[in-house]
């Protein structure tokens, strides 16, 4: 970290920041009480996957889905998949994978087996559970060893996307980007995958607007980045997207395969993918706990608010959401250093002094969340087919990035409004960022802001508005606030959206061994 990077320049009132955090904490804690009372089909499929259940049947249906559907059809999901798998292990002496295969062959009905003593069931499943988590620890250690060998980057991470639809073509483009100087490769998911209530299987070559997120695709890209990383003598981070109906499942396959960042934000799924709010908030908790355990940094989606709402008028909603996301993350065991809270450079270029307002927003986020890496998004809403103007807009974004010490810098593309970037588009964007970051490396250390000037006043105003908004949400509750369109002007019904039928109340004997095991490893107090 650079010296003096977090020295306050905006003279923000710490008491106001504390009030905002207090309200956000109450919002998250109240929601956690709801979350703790329910499970979902995706949470239980994740339990199956951690226990070692993998593969698909002859029709391409994942075995994890088959097992959970079997339990749900027998009205037993409230007890948890681990309960029935442990019970079946005692009754049949089969492994979880073998049990899943028996169910797929219609030779076993989990809920129709005689139920053994609960203590015996837990003892049986615990013997498998601890071994299952070791694989994640090994993968995490591999990342740590790589970083220890080559060191990590001090300044902003240059983050670019690949989105061909074909994992092998993605590899070609990702390797080229790494050689051009990229530090982070994000493999964009195929359009609509967030709405699938299952994870496709194997390597894929036919995505639209992106590539399917599958465990095999994760493995292929991770290996390619590790190989080119060894060649270049630096670690290349890998990103994918967990938000959607399979949030915790994608987190676990990402943990198995060594991904570094995941878009992991229930609010994003609610607002921009119309995922049912109850379903995705429950999913998010277990998903984020897995990420915390695996050392994966989450990315949140507040930047998307500004692609639909005015960045000047609605900046406070971004900050309010960041506060809420921070508290949800803490409840799931994530360290502040694993919170890539999102924001964006999306001010209308025609606004006078818009660049100063962008500085205010970015510096404010840095001072309020000093330990978070922050995910800073480039201009997209006002990028046109004029690639020369677009390149200048991206340059201004890069200047704010280095001035305010943003960490996860998603590079703007001069062809943003024309097509998915070509390799030479990425090369130009990387060159732009490297030039600015090198020439302005210590600019932020050298400048101060005018007391009560445009930048300081703007930051204080946004903080005050965000605090008022959080207090309003605290009174109403998050569900009600979302139904009223509090973020991005998008209204969602409590019981609307996709996936509500996958939400199940927990039985008093519900069992998920991984929550307690992960809490213990993360040093969290048990509920």
Automatic annotation (TrEMBL):
Pfam annotation, one family: Lys-AminoMut_A
GO molecular function: catalytic activity; cobalamin binding
InterPro entries the UniProt entry points to: Cbl-dep_enz_cat, Lys-AminoMut_A, Lys-AminoMut_asu_sf
Residue stretches making up the D-Lysine 5,6-aminomutase alpha subunit domain: 10-517
Protein name: Lysine 5,6-aminomutase subunit alpha
Natural source organism: Promethearchaeum syntrophicum
UniProt lineage: Archaea, Promethearchaeati, Promethearchaeota, Promethearchaeia, Promethearchaeales
């Amino acid at each position: 970290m650079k010296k003096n990077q977090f020295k306050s320049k905006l003279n923000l009132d710490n008491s106001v920041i504390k009030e905002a955090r207090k309200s956000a904490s109450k919002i998250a804690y109240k929601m956690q009480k709801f979350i703790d009372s329910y499970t979902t089909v995706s949470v239980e499929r994740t339990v199956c996957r951690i226990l070692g259940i993998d593969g698909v049947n002859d029709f391409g249906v994942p075995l994890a889905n088959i097992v959970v559907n079997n339990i749900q059809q027998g009205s037993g999901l409230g007890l948890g998949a681990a309960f029935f798998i442990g019970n079946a292990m005692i009754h049949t002496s089969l492994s979880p994978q073998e049990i899943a295969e028996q169910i797929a062959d219609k030779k076993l009905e989990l809920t129709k087996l005689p139920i053994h003593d609960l203590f015996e069931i837990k003892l049986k499943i615990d013997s498998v559970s601890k071994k299952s988590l070791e694989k994640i620890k090994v993968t995490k250690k591999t990342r740590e060893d790589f970083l220890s060998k080559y060191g990590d980057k001090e300044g902003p991470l240059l983050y670019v996307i690949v989105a061909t639809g074909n994992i092998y073509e993605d590899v070609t483009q990702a390797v080229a980007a790494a050689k051009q100087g990229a530090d982070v490769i994000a493999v964009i998911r195929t359009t609509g995958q967030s709405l699938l209530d299952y994870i496709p299987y194997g390597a894929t070559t036919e995505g639209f607007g992106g590539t399917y997120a599958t465990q095999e695709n994760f493995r292929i890209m991770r290996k390619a980045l590790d190989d080119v990383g060894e060649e270049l003598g630096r670690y290349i981070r890998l990103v994918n997207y967990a938000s959607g109906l399979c949030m915790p499942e994608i987190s676990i396959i990402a943990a198995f395969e060594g991904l570094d960042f995941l878009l992991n934000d229930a609010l994003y799924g609610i607002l921009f993918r119309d995922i049912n709010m109850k379903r995705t908030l429950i999913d998010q908790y277990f998903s984020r706990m897995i990420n915390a355990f695996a050392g994966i940094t989450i990315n949140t989606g507040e930047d998307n608010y500004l692609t639909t709402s005015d960045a000047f008028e609605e900046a406070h909603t971004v900050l309010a959401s960041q506060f809420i996301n921070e508290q949800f993350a803490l409840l799931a065991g994530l360290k502040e250093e694993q919170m890539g809270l999102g924001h964006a450079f999306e001010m209308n270029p025609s606004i006078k002094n818009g660049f100063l307002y962008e500085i205010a927003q970015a510096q404010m986020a840095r001072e309020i969340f000093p330990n978070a890496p922050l995910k800073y998004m480039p201009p997209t809403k006002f990028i046109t087919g004029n690639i020369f103007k677009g390149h200048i807009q991206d340059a201004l974004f890069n200047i704010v990035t280095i001035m305010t010490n943003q960490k996860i810098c998603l590079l703007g593309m001069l062809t943003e409004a024309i097509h998915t970037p070509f390799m030479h588009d990425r090369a130009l964007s990387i060159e732009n960022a490297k030039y600015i970051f090198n020439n302005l490396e210590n600019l932020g250390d050298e400048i101060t802001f005018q007391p009560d000037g445009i930048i300081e006043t703007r930051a204080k105003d946004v903080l005050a508005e965000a605090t008022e908004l959080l207090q309003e949400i605290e009174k109403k509750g998050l569900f009600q606030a979302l139904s009223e369109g509090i973020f991005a002007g998008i209204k969602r019904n409590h019981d609307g959206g996709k996936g509500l039928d996958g939400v199940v109340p927990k039985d008093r004997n519900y069992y998920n061994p991984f929550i307690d095991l992960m809490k213990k490893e993360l040093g969290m107090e048990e509920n």
